Amino acid sequence: MPTINRNGVNIFYETYGEGPVVLLTHGFSATSKMWNDQIDSLSSDYCLVLWDMRGHGSSDYPEDINLYNEKETIEDILSILDKLNVKKANIGGMSLGGYMSLAFYNQFPERVDSLIIIDTGPGFKNEDARNNWNNYAISTAEKFELSGLDSLTGRSKEMDPKNHLNAKGLSKAARGMLTQHDDRIIRSLEKISVPSLIVVGENDKPFLAASDYMERKIVGSKKVVISDAGHAVNIDQPETFNQTVREFLSSK
Questions:
Q1: Are 24 and 38 in contact (CB under 8 A)?
Q2: Model pTM?
Q3: Are 204 and 119 in contact (CB under 8 A)?
């Protein structure tokens, strides 16, 4: 099982295929398994890199809450690229993974060839809205602390409790990675200068307006709304999603 080790924390990743690198980051409380329907399609022409964020899946679940944050997450991505000797990659992700992809670009734009942002919000300029989001993140952490992995039952399709070792890492990730503390990322959108694809499911109501906003702010970006799909758009409509991503990658 390939891993990188950053300061004693093992981060799991896998690669499929050869060619230009496409690195995809899963959403909060999902794992790299959420991309199973993308492996065959994308690895036929690209090197697909999938990984588990800390506190998720097959990566480590460190005890220290200070090891769960945006900085550690984007440096995990950087370390995976360095381990694979990849200078530039197509960086993408879903929901929290999409937000972390935007944060990665903001910190390391020279390592990004394009962005693929899926069912994602870019953060909040309004402090009250950010506080409401953070209250949601903390309540999510508390549910994991109270009910364990059972709190994932009945949630979005990519959140499979069988894919996690325990709920402690997810609780810490909710407190340290899902919460937001400023408006840096949403205010950085206008600085993005690489080809950018924004994908959202038509039934993912909370993220439709965010996708519209990113399309307006990211110069030259392309937005695709996929019919009959919710938050897990790549699982709900894998063929349409795969075709959308392949067309974007081949045309940029």
A1: yes
A2: 0.96
A3: yes
pLDDT along the chain (252 residues), means of 10: 93 98 98 97 98 98 97 98 98 98 98 98 95 96 94 86 94 97 96 98 96 97 97 97 98 84
Could you please report the per-residue DSSP string of 35-64? Answer: GHHHHHHHHTTSEEEEE--TTSTTS---S-
Q: Nearest CA to 41 among 236, 228, 234, 195?
A: 234
At 26, list the tokens.
């899963």
| Cβ pair 189, 214 in contact under 8 A | yes
Q: Which residues contact 34 (CB under 8 A, 6 or more apart)?
A: 26, 27, 94, 158, 232, 234, 235
Instruction: Determine the Cα–Cα distance for residues 173 and 6; give it in Å rounded to an integer.
Output: 17
User: Do 1 and 48 meet the contact criterion of CB atoms below 8 Å apart?
Assistant: no
The Cα-based distances of 222 to 22, 24, 27, 212, 249 in angstroms read 18, 18, 21, 10, 12
Could you tell me if 16 and 48 are in contact, meaning their C-beta atoms sit under 8 angstroms apart?
yes
Please name the residues in contact with 19: beta carbons below 8 A apart, sequence gap of 6 or more: 45, 46, 47
Neighbours of 1 (CB within 10 A): 7
User: d(Cα 127, Cα 221) in Å, to the nearest integer?
Assistant: 27
Show the tokens assigned to 53.
């964020």
| CATH number, domain 3-124+183-251 | 3.40.50.1820
